[in-house]
Amino acid sequence: MAGDTVFSVFLPDYAASNPVPVVIYLSGLTCTDENAVTKAGAQRVASELGLALVFPDTSPRGDGVADDAEGAYDLGLGAGFYVNATQSP
Predict the structure, then answer these.
(1) How far is it, in rounded angstroms, from Cα 25 to Cα 69?
(2) Does pTM surpass 0.85?
(3) 46: buried, middle or exposed (CB in 10 Å: 19+, 13-18, 0-12)?
(4) Most exposed of 36, 39, 40, 85 (fewest Cβ within 10 Å)?
(5) Which residues make beta-bridge pairs with 9?
(6) Residue 87 clears pLDDT 80, i.e. is over it
């Protein structure tokens, strides 16, 4: 796979001089890294617990992304799905 990855990161103050555990927040369908940060509101709790948060933009974006040809669903325009496949179908 090739491409750029966009994500937002929250680091608690404690991380300036100490290693901290990381939580990767996988947002829902069509969410960006920015609106996941806003909607989750988890920074306060992460700060209290000394956790780093990573919010990846989980959806492919742009004109070259596959889409629903009939336009019934914005599949390639920001939809993300998580699967646990171990091989191609």
Answers:
(1) 30
(2) no
(3) buried
(4) 85
(5) 54
(6) no
